[in-house]
Amino acid sequence: xSGGSMGNEGGDGDGxxxxxxxxxxxxxxxxxxxxxxxxxxxxxxxSLDQKKTELEDLKNESEYEKQRAQDSxxxxxxxxxxxxxxIFHLNKANDIYGWAGLEIExxxxxxxxxxxxxxxxxxxxxxxxxxxxVNEDELYEIKECQPDALSKDALEEMERDxxxxxxxxxxxxxxxxxxxLRRAFIASLMERTPPRR
Length: 197
Prior knowledge:
This protein has three helices and four strands. By secondary structure, it is α+β, with helices and mostly antiparallel strands. A four-stranded antiparallel sheet has the order 1-2-3-4.
C-alpha cells in the first residue's frame, strides 16, 4: 500500500517534470515567435524616426525659403519706394524750375541728365548740362558736364553736398543741387564772357 503511494507520487513527480519541460519549450517557442515582431517593430520605429527627421528638414528648408522670399519682397519694396521718391522729387524740381529752363531727362544706366537753357543771354536756347549717376557705393556722381564750363573742384563740391543729405520732402537736396548747378553755370559764363561796352 505504501509502495503504491510512493509509486504514484513518483509518477506524479515525473508528470510534473514533463509539464515543466513542456512549458519551457512553449516559452522558448513563444519567444522565438515574438522575435520577428520585435525586429519589425524596431524597423518601423527607425523608419518613423527617419521620416520625422526628413519632415523636420523639409520644415526648416521651407522656413528658409519663406524667409528668403520675404527678404526679397522687402528689398524690392524698398528699391521701388526709393525710386518713386527720387522720381517724385525730380519731377517736383522740374515743375518748380521749369521757368529757369531746367529739364530733367532719363539717361542710360540709371543716370539722369540735368539740362538748363536760359543761361546765356546771347543764346537763351544754348544747353548747359550734367549727367548725374549713382555709383557702386550708392553715392551720386557727376559723370559729364557740357559744355566743359565748370571746374573739377566745383563739380566735386556739388557731389559732396548732394551726398551729405538724404533726399526727402523736408530736406530736398536735389532741389538745392539744381539751384547750385544753375548758379554755377551762370557764374562760369560771366567769368568767360567779358561785359559788353
